Amino acid sequence: LSVVGETPCPTYKALSYEWGLPPSDPSNTPTILLDNYPICIRQNLHDAFQSILYNHHRLYGKSPLYLCVDALCINQLDEQEKGHRVQLMRKIYQTAKMVVV
């Protein structure tokens, strides 16, 4: 995965999902690479990625997929950014080509 800037914004899909509880065993947490940095994610997000990517590749081949995922797009350690981004979520979902729930 790679981070893409907001301007100009490519056509994207958005993922809306319940974050769920933190894993009880962090050593058994799925990890993804985001701009070549390992990021731990929750199992339900990992499962959603697998399903979305499988269906995207089945329908569109190797064309890129731009996906807005709030857990990854918002710096969860920065309260000011979180407050600002949460206010933008409605617009993010409205302007997405598709919202996967």
TrEMBL record:
Q: Which Pfam families match?
A: HET (PF06985)
Q: Which residues form the Heterokaryon incompatibility domain?
A: 12-101
Tree of life domain: Eukaryota
Q: Which InterPro entries does the UniProt entry name for this protein?
A: HET, HetReg/Transcr_Mod
Supply the PANTHER family for this chain: ANKYRIN REPEAT DOMAIN-CONTAINING PROTEIN 39 HOMOLOG-RELATED, HETEROKARYON INCOMPATIBILITY DOMAIN-CONTAINING PROTEIN
The protein in question is named Heterokaryon incompatibility
Species the sequence originates in: Pseudoneurospora amorphoporcata
